């Protein structure tokens, strides 16, 4: 066996690598997923993450007790939450923050975890705790001070400590696309201080509930909405619509999909490769096997000999897969640490995944091996000792057709070889197309993200800055915005949180009022076309329309969840394709006509002169009418930065994985060809064919198969991507499905180069075949 | 050391011969050709200073015991192998100075090989095996003509596996002559055949030599076959021990074994 191994060590290693890739992905993705799930669960449990969340305009503290009485509610806690614009010394532009009140006796739900310093003392109104990432970003250590505009009043606050919270594992400013710990912070403040700042003594505007084990969440939400309706409740929701939780869950789902989709491809390819290589080895040692049988070795002993080799491949693959899987899990957990702030990590090197992967790995090689070994064992010894009968070449219709083409004979050799051993060609084809497919699927994810960024930044939101006003104002506010420094263009818009109701179906959403001729913030559909808003009625994205069970022409009830809290009945004018769209849209004149008020704005989008940004920022910090500010250029820059960093690593890993399959398959197939045909190919050299012409027969066959495999792989990749989108899409997010030509081209190119490299490695061996030796005798 | 000396002496002789017989143009000239095989620590001297000339239109039968170096010599003449020492000329060109690419071109344009085990491409039919060579040759005959000359006018569309040994060997001969080579090098072409089939193969070679004037070297173990050659060369232990004209040439059909 050692002798066998020495001869085919490169092939053994190539197969082990393919197998190892499959196991690596399985173990890596599973371990990462399990680690995150365990960590999340423990964090939620220890810090009492709530099950149901709701905001309202203002409710007396007594509703907390009333909510706790709802059937299925274990615990309820109210608080005051509002946003603020901060003036931090370390940055010129304003930051925004979410301010949350801390009950005097400490929070009992969503309890903050102290990382440094202490929590604010109840009797010191200026003391606050901030979230750790924000503190880190600005060096706001306990004891430092900063200013902020709270409810229109400039106040100074002193940091007492840094905290983390299970509510903000993933921290994102409302309306932002990416976390930004510099520009968005969290502030925990004494309840009394918060109430004083917001004129909310004895009142709350946020409520969190923890449910009993057997509670019916839907029923609780309905009861809670009923309870809070008089107080301007904006509609309760469960964890699935809580920003931090849903992002984390989406990520976990994606990991699960990866662990389910990718490994089977690798395992199938590895099984075929084992079959192919062992089959060839047995063919080479056929006489020896006959001899062993003749002298009385049993079938099982001989089969055992070859299966040992298969097991060795399996063992190698498993060890490699475990090792790299562990390594990749560590790397991925570290990567996730950039996005998700956990105070601790509970490592779960998924033992189950280790066992399953080992069993699958061994089953794979044994299956491949047994098929190869089986045929040889059935031969009677006398026959086995003979050299194998020369292959017979048929003259099927296909062959006649090829003959008719008057190809060169070396080309003919390629085609005859493929036709004569279709199963082998099919394995190569499958393997190569699988690797193209994996690459298409992987690169597609980047297409999706890029498409997303393009539609968000280039099409829909072309503004540089968005000012969110503290209160709706009439249209003249847009004109006033021109007096701010550096403003080149200003455009008003109106947004309102709403509950959309169609019969018993309802959805929390936002209604966007678009002014005519808007150039900056526009409504764009999946095809990238700007949607012109009809003179009357709503425009809904298809996902939202489906969730509401409504179609164009029908009437929809729109309940405004913020002042002036009107309820409108509006017709649905059109439904558009918008994978990420969750909001309803309407032309501003139609909206205000229905509300019977003069047109208003509560957001102003700006284009500004970039060199006057600082002056603008300073002016805004002192403008109480502006509640918060979003800098889209900065958001885009951050988005691209994070993306290029993470995507590059991911592209690298995926390319490596895809390319490894291609190498494993093509290298093995070419080695087997070489081993079977070296005499034939050496004969061609004797006849005066050059090295290049001879290797054409070998290289040509492999590259021809690769070329045929590429379109097959494209189709395969297309369907893998469809599956991935299905697995990753939730009812709130639909990944845009659009695979770019670049993705197809890159996948093909990577695989083509890998295949070419592999055959070229084998070609070098062909060049070393000794001509005179090849003529000595038949093997 | 002794071998080296012999080599130098032989070199002188060779030149002398060439001067003496200017009327006979040599296709091949081997001068002091030595070939040493090294496998690990063991050295095998397959050729120990061979001097030999092969003339246009001539059929030379090469005899010798097993292991005497016949195949080694033939491979060196055909540009498949290089001598450890000595020189080989094809017409005016020194093969021993040629690059790998030049040797490939030399084989392609000038040499036809026939081996004991045919060395046909199993995935190509008889006709296609011949076409394989005619496609890259400079002035080939049609594959059909070559197969006819080799005595296999029918069965052109059969694969090698569907042909008998003798038939396969005739395909190999057709493939070797289709390019109208200057020399035909045959290493035991009848070695794997019975006498009747063997004679038919020899007839094919004989006719090619007679009709096309292709200089031919024919290696055989069968002393009877030497009667069909113009000249007989015997190798023993890596040296030429006999090199003489055959005054009474016979047709292959008159040979029997
Ligand atoms: N590739 C090689 N490596 C080592 N030794 C070799 C090699 N080829 C030939 N020899 C040795 O060189 C010597 C001459 O070999 P060669 O094949 O030329 O003999 P031959 O006359 O053709 O014999 P036969 O009639 O059996 O074919 C032999 O001793 C052989 O063992
Ligand atoms: Mg020999």
Describe what this molecule looks like in 3D.
The complex is a heterodimer of chains A (779) and B (257). The longest helix of chain A has 55 residues, at 632-686. Chain A is elongated, with a radius of gyration of 33 Å. In chain A, a hairpin with a 6-residue loop joins strand 16 (555-560) and strand 17. Chain A starts with a helix and ends with a helix. Chain A folds into 4 domains: 1-51 and 260-350 and 358-378, no CATH class; 81-185, no CATH class; 409-462 and 632-779, no CATH class; 487-608, no CATH class. In chain A, the strands form 3 sheets. Chain A has a 6-stranded mixed barrel with strand order 3-4-9-6-8-7. In chain A, strands 13-14-18-15-17-16 form a 6-stranded mixed barrel. In chain A, strands 2-10-1-11 form a 4-stranded antiparallel beta sheet, with helices on one face. Chain A contains 22 helices and 20 strands. By secondary structure, chain A is α+β, with helices and mostly antiparallel strands. With 257 residues, chain B is an alpha/beta fold. Chain B has a single domain (55-80, 99-254), classed as Rossmann fold (3-Layer(aba) Sandwich), CATH 3.40.50.300. Helices cover 33% and strands 27% of the residues of chain B. Chain B has 7 helices and 10 strands. A 6-stranded mixed beta sheet of chain B has the order 6-7-8-3-9-10, sandwiched between helices. A 4-stranded antiparallel beta sheet of chain B has the order 2-1-4-5. In chain B, a hairpin with a 2-residue loop joins strand 4 and strand 5 (93-94). In chain B, helix 4 crosses helix 5 (143-149). Chain B is globular. The termini of chain B are far apart. Residues 1-22 of chain B have low confidence and may be disordered. Classes of the chains: A alpha+beta (779), B alpha/beta (257). Residues 37, 39, 44, 46, 64, 66-72 of chain B line the site of adenosine-5'-triphosphate (ATP). Magnesium ion (MG) binds next to helix 2 of chain B.
């Amino acid at each position: 066996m050692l002798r066998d191994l020495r001869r085919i060590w490169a092939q053994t290693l190539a197969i082990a690598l393919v197998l190892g890739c499959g196991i690596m992905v399985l173990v890596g993705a599973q371990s990462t997923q399990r680690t995150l799930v365990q960590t999340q669960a423990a964090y939620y449990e220890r810090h009492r993450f709530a099950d149901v969340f709701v905001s309202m305009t203002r409710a007396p503290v007594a509703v907390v007790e009333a909510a706790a009485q709802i059937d299925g509610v274990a615990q309820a806690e109210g608080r005051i939450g509002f946003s603020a614009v901060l003036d931090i010394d370390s940055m010129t532009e304003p930051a925004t923050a979410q301010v949350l009140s801390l009950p005097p006796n400490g929070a009992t739900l969503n309890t903050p975890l102290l990382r440094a310093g202490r929590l604010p003392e109840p009797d010191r109104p200026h003391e606050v705790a901030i979230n750790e990432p924000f503190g880190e970003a600005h060096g706001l250590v306990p004891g430092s001070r900063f200013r902020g505009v709270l409810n229109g009043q400039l106040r100074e606050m002193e940091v007492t400590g840094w905290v983390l919270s299970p509510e903000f594992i993933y921290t994102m400013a409302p309306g932002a696309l990416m976390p930004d710990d510099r520009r968005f912070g969290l502030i925990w403040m004494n309840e009394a201080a918060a109430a004083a700042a917001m004129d909310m003594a004895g009142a709350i505007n946020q409520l969190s509930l923890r449910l009993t084990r057997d509670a019916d969440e839907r029923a609780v939400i309905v009861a809670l909405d009923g309870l809070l309706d008089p107080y301007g409740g904006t509609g309760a929701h469960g964890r699935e619509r809580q920003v931090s939780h849903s992002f984390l869950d989406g990520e976990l789902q994606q990991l699960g999909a990866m662990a389910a989709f990718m490994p089977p491809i690798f395992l199938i390819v590895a099984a075929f490769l084992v079959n192919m290589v062992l089959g060839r080895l047995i063919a080479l040692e056929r006489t020896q096997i006959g001899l062993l049988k003749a002298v009385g070795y049993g079938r099982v002993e001989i089969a055992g000999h070859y299966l040992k080799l298969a097991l060795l491949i399996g063992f190698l693959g498993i060890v490699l897969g475990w090792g790299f899987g562990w390594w990749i899990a560590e790397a991925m957990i570290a990567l996730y640490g950039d996005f998700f702030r956990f105070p601790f990590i509970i490592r779960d090197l998924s033992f189950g995944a280790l066992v399953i992967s080992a069993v699958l790995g061994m089953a794979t090689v044994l299956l491949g091996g047994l098929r190869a070994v089986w045929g040889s064992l059935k031969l009677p010894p006398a026959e086995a000792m003979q050299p194998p009968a020369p292959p017979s070449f048929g003259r099927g219709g296909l062959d006649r057709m090829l003959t008719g083409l008057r190809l060169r004979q070396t080309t003919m050799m390629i085609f005859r070889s493929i036709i004569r051993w279709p199963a082998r060609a099919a394995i190569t084809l499958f393997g190569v197309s699988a690797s193209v497919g994996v690459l298409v699927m992987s690169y597609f994810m980047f297409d999706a993200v890029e498409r997303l960024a393009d539609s968000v930044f280039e099409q829909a939101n072309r503004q540089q800055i968005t000012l969110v006003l503290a209160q709706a104002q009439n249209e003249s506010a847009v004109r006033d915005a021109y007096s701010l420094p550096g403003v080149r263009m200003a455009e008003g818009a109106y947004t309102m949180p709403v509950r959309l109701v169609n019969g018993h179906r309802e959805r929390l959403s936002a209604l966007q009022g678009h002014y005519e001729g808007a150039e900056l913030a526009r409504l764009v559909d999946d095809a990238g076309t700007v949607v012109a808003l009809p003179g009357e009625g709503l425009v809904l994205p298809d996902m939202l329309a489906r969730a509401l069970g409504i179609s164009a022409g029908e009437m929809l009830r729109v309940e405004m969840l913020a002042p002036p809290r009107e309820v409108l009945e509006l017709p649905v004018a059109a439904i558009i394709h918008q994978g990420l769209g969750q909001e309803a849209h309407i032309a501003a004149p139609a909206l205000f006509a229905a509300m019977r008020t003069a047109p208003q704005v509560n957001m102003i989008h700006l284009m500004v002169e970039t060199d006057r940004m600082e002056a603008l920022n300073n002016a805004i910090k002192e403008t109480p009418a502006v509640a918060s500010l979003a800098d889209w250029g900065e958001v885009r820059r951050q988005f691209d930065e994070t993306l290029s960093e993470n995507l590059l690593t991911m592209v690298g890993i995926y390319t490596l994985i895809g390319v490894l399959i291609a190498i494993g398959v093509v290298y093995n197939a070419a080695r087997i060809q070489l081993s079977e045909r070296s005499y034939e190919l050496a004969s061609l050299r004797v006849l005066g064919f050059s090295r290049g012409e001879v290797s054409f027969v070998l290289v040509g066959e492999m590259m021809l198969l690769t070329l045929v495999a590429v379109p097959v792989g494209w189709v395969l990749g297309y369907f893998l991507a469809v599956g991935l989108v299905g697995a990753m899409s939730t009812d709130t997010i639909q990944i845009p499905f659009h695979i770019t030509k670049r993705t197809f081209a890159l996948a093909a190119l990577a695989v083509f180069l890998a295949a070419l490299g592999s055959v070229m490695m084998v070609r070098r061996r062909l060049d070393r075949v000794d001509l005179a030796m090849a003529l000595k005798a038949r093997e | 050391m002794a071998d080296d000396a012999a080599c130098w002496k032989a070199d002188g002789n060779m030149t002398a011969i060439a001067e003496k017989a200017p009327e006979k143009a040599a296709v091949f000239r081997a001068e002091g050709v030595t070939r040493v095989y090294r496998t690990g620590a063991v050295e095998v001297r397959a050729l120990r200073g061979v001097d030999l000339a092969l003339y246009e239109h001539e059929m030379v039968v090469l005899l010798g015991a097993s292991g005497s170096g016949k195949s080694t010599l033939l491979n060196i003449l055909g540009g498949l192998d290089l001598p450890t020492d000595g020189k080989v000329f094809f017409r005016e060109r020194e093969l021993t100075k040629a690059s790998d690419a030049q040797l490939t071109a030399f084989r392609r344009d000038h040499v036809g090989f026939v081996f004991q085990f045919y060395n046909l491409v199993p995935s190509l039919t008889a006709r296609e095996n011949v076409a394989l060579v005619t496609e890259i040759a400079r002035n080939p005959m049609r594959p059909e003509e070559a197969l006819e000359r080799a005595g296999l006018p029918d069965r052109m569309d059969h694969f090698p596996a569907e042909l008998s040994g003798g038939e396969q060997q005739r395909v190999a001969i057709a493939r070797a002559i289709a390019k109208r080579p200057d020399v035909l090098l045959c290493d035991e072409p009848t070695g794997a055949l019975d006498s009747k089939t063997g004679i038919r193969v020899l007839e094919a070679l004989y006719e090619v030599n007679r009709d096309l004037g292709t200089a031919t070297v024919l290696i055989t173990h069968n002393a009877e076959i030497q009667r069909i050659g113009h000249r007989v060369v015997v190798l023993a232990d890596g040296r030429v021990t006999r090199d003489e004209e055959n005054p009474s040439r016979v047709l292959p059909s008159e040979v029997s074994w």
